[in-house]
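Entry 14. Structure prediction run on the chain below.
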Amino acid sequence: MGRMTPSWKIPLVLYGYYGFGNWGDELSLLATLRALEDIGQELSLSFAYRVIVGNPSLVPPLPGEVILVERRRPDRVLSALFESLGVVVGGGSLLQDATSFRSLLYYATFLSLAQRVGKPVVFFGCGLGPFRRKLSVKLVRKLLRRVRLFLARDEATLAFLEEHRLCPASLGADPVFLLEQEKARASSQRLGVFLRREALERKEVLCEGLRELQRKGWNLEFVAFHRGEDREIAEFFADHLCAPVYVFSGVSEVLSYFSGLSGVVSMRFHPLVLATQSGVPWWAFDLDPKIVAFSAHWEGKNLLSLATLEPTLLCAALQDAAVLREKTRVLQDVFRKRALAAKGELARFLKSTLG
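Output returned:
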C-alpha cells in the first residue's frame, strides 16, 4: 500500500448479524468498533467503517467514522465491499446452519466474494456451528481455508479449525468481554430472567419454579433482551408472576443493569457474558451449544435442562449462588484477558496487512 496522507482513512467492512434488535449482536459490534479505534490510535492508523446491518434504526450510536449499509440493498453492500481494504467479522456465529442453510449460504457467499476480489477476511471473537448438514461443513471448510485470521470465541471453535487445519487461528473470547462494566454491588436478591419463545413450551413448570423462587425471597425481573422476539414472552411471564418487565433503551442501560443483580437466569448467551463481566452468578438453559460450552467453565453446575426441568430442580440450582459467584469472579478475569489477547493479535494482523 502506498504512503497515506494524514486525512486518508482505511475503509473496512464490519460484518455480522447487526441491526436486528438483539442486544448481544449490537454490543458485539460496539465492542469490535471500540477495539478497532483503540488499535488505530496505537498504530497511528485511521479507519472508516462500512457496517452491514438489517435495520439501521436498531443500531446504537457507534464510535468512529461509520456508515450503516442496509443488507437489503445489494448494490450498496457490494459498493462498500469493493471500496474496502478488508472485512472484519465481529462476534457471533454467522457460519452455522441451525437457523437455516439459506442463512449460512448468504453469509458464506458474501465472504467468499470478498476473498475472490482480494479483500482479507478476519474473524474477531467468533464461533462456528452448529452444523446439521455435511454440505454445510464442506462449504465452511472451503471458505475458511482462505481466511487470513480467526480469533475464536471458544475452545470448540478453535478445535474445529485446528482439526481441519483451515487457517491461522488462536483462542480469544467474545468481544463483549472488552466492554467496561460495573461490578456487582451489595446483594439485592434481584434476579434477571431472560427468556425466549421456547419458554412457552414448558410455561407451567417454569411459572411454578419461578413462583417458588419468589417465595424464597428472589425479586424477579423479566428482560426482553431481543427487542422484537422476547418482549411478548417477558410480558406473559411477568403478568403471571406479578413482576416487572425491562426493555433496554440504550447501551449504557444494558451495561449498568447487571451490576444491580444478584443472579441471572437466561435462555440467551450474551446475558451470561454480561453477568460474568459484572461478577454475577448465572444459570442457563441448554438450548444453545455456545451456552453449553460456556457453562463447561463452571463444570456445568449452572446449566439447566428445559426438557427435564422441575420446579424443585430450579430452586435447588439457585442454592449454589454463593459458590458460583466466587467462580464467576475468577473467570471474569480469565475471559477478559483472553479478549485483550485477541485484540492484540488483531492489532498485529492489521499492522502487517494495512500498516
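The CA atoms of residues 201 and 306 lie 9 Å apart.
Filed with the rest of this week's runs.
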